């Protein structure tokens, strides 16, 4: 069964809206579009490139799809070549015309369609697509969660964990790495069960 990877850039206070550019997503009057740009460095760039190894499908929300479709077909380089040849699956409540080669609309029952993708692909990556990600969180419909957490606080904007999260256990699957400009890479796997509870007063403070 294939894996569904969610890849997100987020601020320390959890804002993941419009990291890439000023006009990416201005919903709610968001004034910090492109907040990631001053903090990108070669370490993060290398991590992003490495994370694409084995990727064989893209799964995108409609807004992110439109941004990608306007840019990547006209770009050059390794990422452009990869994205342009991969199959692309798009979640939308409407029936948009998908002009980017290899694009397919998921249909009205997106969670069921996403589950079906696991039988067709090994590594399906969700990049950005913050509104759609809330559906995946609510359905526990992901296998890996990769976060680049940046040392800025924006106070407002769309959050990684908004209102679609259900109690979920995650497992850190590789050492946390900080880049020279302070971006911290955290990669998790979905784990069984729901978070446990306890009484800290009963914990042996000696070890």
UniProtKB/TrEMBL annotation:
InterPro entries: DHFR-like_dom_sf, RibDG_C. It comes from the Bacteria. The lineage of its organism: Bacteria, Bacillati, Actinomycetota, Actinomycetes, Micrococcales. Gene3D superfamilies: Dihydrofolate Reductase, subunit A. This is Dihydrofolate reductase family protein. It holds the Pfam family RibD_C. Residues 5-173 form the Bacterial bifunctional deaminase-reductase C-terminal domain. It comes from Arthrobacter hankyongi.
